[in-house]
Write a sequence for this structure.
């Protein structure tokens, strides 16, 4: 594979056995896997993201988030480096137009709005499990320290601040609203029926993130609407490549 690699993907590793777990890198990995683009993964721990990605001459984020984040990619043909999943997806689609995947669609805006409604309600059910169950030691220490600074308290104290007594029940209506989007065109498992779009990879990236961090929560989401089962099952072939 090394001889024909087109793209290097910078992703954050889990502790051994290494695998992709974070939802933003999953959006890009799903796209690369779907298009069958030859790529390799450069596993980059949290403390190394800034020095490694800045060395690629990528402009830092200016949206209030960390200056350098995963995913980032390098296109081998001209050494162009890009960060942020949507920008990366648009460039991949431009450079590799076969097996097209629409990036900016009306459906994507609806999906993002629906995810923004439910995800904050279950953050305390997910985020602390990143260092607890997923990250290797260096990234674990970095994540615990920086998130505690962001939250203004220890991350495991923040974990106790639930969105109501039953967070998953609190967001059930939001999850149903997301599911409704998948019933507008039931000719296939995707938001646009039989045509997969980047919006679908956005949802599946979140589903896989939840599955890794909180399996009962993942099962609950799938039980709320069979549309999520159909979508996740349809994308399973592109979820298989997770460790390299």
């Amino acid at each position: 594979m090394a001889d024909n690699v087109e793209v290097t993907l910078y992703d954050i590793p889990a502790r051994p056995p290494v695998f992709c777990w974070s939802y933003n890198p999953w959006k890009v990995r799903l796209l690369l896997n779907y298009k069958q683009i030859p790529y390799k993964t450069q596993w980059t721990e949290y403390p190394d993201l800034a020095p490694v990605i800045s060395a690629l001459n990528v402009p830092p984020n200016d949206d209030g988030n960390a200056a350098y984040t995963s995913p980032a990619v390098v296109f081998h043909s001209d050494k162009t480096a890009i960060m942020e999943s949507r920008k990366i997806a648009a460039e991949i689609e431009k450079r590799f137009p076969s097996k097209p995947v629409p990036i900016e669609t009306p459906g994507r805006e609806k999906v993002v709005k629906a995810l923004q409604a439910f995800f904050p309600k279950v953050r305390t059910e997910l985020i602390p499990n990143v260092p607890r169950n997923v990250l290797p030691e260096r990234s674990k220490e970095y994540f615990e320290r920086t998130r505690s600074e962001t939250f203004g308290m220890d991350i495991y104290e923040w974990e106790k601040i639930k969105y109501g007594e039953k967070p998953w029940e609190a967001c059930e209506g939001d999850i149903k609203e997301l599911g409704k989007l998948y019933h507008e065109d039931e000719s296939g498992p995707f938001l646009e029926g039989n045509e997969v779009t980047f919006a679908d990879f956005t949802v599946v990236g979140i589903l896989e993130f939840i599955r890794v961090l909180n399996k009962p929560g993942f099962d609950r989401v799938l039980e709320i609407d069979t549309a999520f089962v159909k979508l996740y099952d349809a994308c399973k072939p592109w979820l298989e490549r997770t460790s390299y």
Q: What stands out?
A: The chain has a mean pLDDT of 95.
